[in-house]
Specification:
- With about 80 residues, this protein is an all-alpha fold.
- The chain has three helices and no strands.
- It has a domain of about 50 residues.
- It starts with 10 loop residues before the first helix and ends in a 15-residue tail after the last helix.
Length: about 80
């Protein structure tokens, strides 16, 4: 499957990044948005520890929002949508 460089193929990664961006756009504080996204990830991946969820969410936010680099990031094994 060929993906566009800025397209996020993993469903949970896209959901987390979209939620973070939208929460920040409406004025939610950074830490509150981060915590909400960590909870969102854990709803879909209850097997993940809190530390694992925080690590992944922070990497995805850093990659897609803070740095906006192109290319895939390490993450969960969710199938592409």
């Amino acid at each position: 499957m060929v993906t566009e460089p800025n397209r996020i193929s993993r469903t949970c990664e896209r959901a987390v990044v979209t939620a973070y961006r939208e929460l920040r756009d409406v004025g939610t504080a950074d830490v509150a948005a981060f915590n909400a996204c960590t909870t969102l990830y854990r709803i879909h991946h209850p097997e993940a520890s809190l530390n694992e969820a925080r690590r992944l969410v922070s990497e995805w936010i850093d990659h897609h929002v803070v740095r906006e680099r192109s290319g895939p990031t390490k993450g969960c094994d969710c199938p592409p949508s």
